[in-house]
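Support request, priority: normal
Reporter: lab tech (M.K.)
Component: structure prediction queue

Hi team, I submitted a job for manbal from Coilia grayii yesterday, and the status page still shows it as pending. I've pasted the exact input below so you can check whether something in the sequence is tripping the parser. The sequence length should be 87 residues. Please let me know if I need to resubmit or if it's stuck on your end.
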Amino acid sequence: MSGELDLSPPEVPEPTFFESLLRYGLFLGAIFQLVCILAVIIPFNKTHEQEEIAEKSDVKGGDQNKKPKGPVPQPRQKPKKESKKKR
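Reply from support: The job had stalled in the queue. We restarted it manually and it finished. Here are the results:
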């Protein structure tokens, strides 16, 4: 009944190159996702240099940088077909 119990750990084969590559790729993907989530959560403020450049362009540009406020008409590609009158 008590016999010999095999308490040694089971044999685990060595991971292949593809399995290792897949594992590290998943780790990199998870890190990339965390960075993206943190970029959304943590607001990014302009640096001092970017603010100075923006102020200089506003002073020099004046009205040149303003966009027209009206909607831009888009040309139609196909004219609408007229519907036939019912008899």
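The radius of gyration is 33 Å. The CA atoms of residues 19 and 25 lie 10 Å apart. Let us know if anything else looks off. Ticket resolved.
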